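hey so u asked for the seq, here:
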Amino acid sequence: MNLSDSPTEQGEQRMAEERDEGFRVVDRRLFTPEGELREEVREQIEQQQAAQAREEHTQAARQQEGAAGERPRRNPAFESLIELVVQNAQALMGGVADPRTGQPLFDLAGAREMIDMLDALREKTRGRLAPEEEQLLLGVTGTLKMQYLQLSEAVAAGREKNRKKM
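ran it, structure tokens below
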């Protein structure tokens, strides 16, 4: 800045200098011209993965501490849920008569869905159930699967018998 500059010129010059100081170009592209990941990006990804792994390890440790410190308690609502699904599956496998005909109602596809729901429930709650709940779920699922298998075989045998008659 010269002393001969007017105050207006001095102000404009100072503003230009301030703008120059605040302006910088940052390359935010993920890849180099060769198509490789930039080193900064690779390091950032590795840091994120390491942080995620630490967080998962911390959560797993907390869960183990909680699992070791306390035993899951029985939940009557959970047991009622299991019984409800079991009753529906049994109804679909002939446990309930059709009110119009008086004949047993058979819907093996629906029964299979109920059994699959119990399997999914068992898988998703593994390690978080009271021993009594685990035994109940395992027992009823096994029993329903055996009933389903027997009914499926009986239906297949009946169809085969009908084919031979024709």
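The chain has five helices and two strands. The helical segments are 7-22, 39-69, 76-92, 108-124, 131-165.
lmk if thats what u needed
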